[in-house]
Amino acid sequence: MFDDFLTRAALAGFGLSLATGPLGSFVVWRRMAYFGDATAHAAVLGVALSFAVGAPVYLGILIVALAMAVTVAQLSGRGQGSDTVLGVLAHSALAFGLVAASLLGSMRINLEAWLFGDILFVTRGDLAAVWGGALIVLALLVSRWNALLTATLNEELARSAGISPARERLALTLALAMTVAVSIKIVGALLIAALLIIPAASARRFARTPEAMAVIATCASLAAVALGLFASVSFDTPAGPSIVAAAAVLFAAALIVRPRLG
Fold it and tell me: Measured between alpha carbons, how far is 67 from 61 in angstroms, rounded to an integer?
């Protein structure tokens, strides 16, 4: 079964959805869209540095994405996490990554694959990395769900309950860095933030509880992967963008089918 490229692509997308559904819900709740962009764009620099030093690509992406996530979290914690600062970090990281990739000379890499994803060419090793990373992220979110939710709703309430908002913010940055690291080959650095946000935004219109929103967002992400892969194979379109486009279509359908709940 694993010798079929479409089966591997579907399994990779479904594994990623396990992480992007609940994590994307927190991204929406905490208004961390630009935060996700900054972390994802930094992954391109991780790819270039990994090729330059001969290190495993996933390891390089994880280290650089984690460094960017921690930097952004520290700036946010000091009251400097404005859209302007996040925009500077996001686009600067992407620019440095592209410049570093251009300096590799004979070690040219296919930047398009890392920017927009190449899910149809995932290997068994990629599958193991995606599912392993997604399960780690899911386990982290489940184990800290109540603390993360309390810190998201009201930081003062969290402190009074003995919960450190800074610690929970760090937990989210770790989860986000891991998700970026395992997803960049599937949907690419430019599209991972969209896959985090759009299914969660669709789920928000139907869910009455945070747990329900996480579950619905996961289901919406699974549906986007299935529809996007079908469209990619049927119309010969890029798989990563097709998945995000399918998620956008589902969001538009949610706008039409159900008015937003309070």
Answer: 10
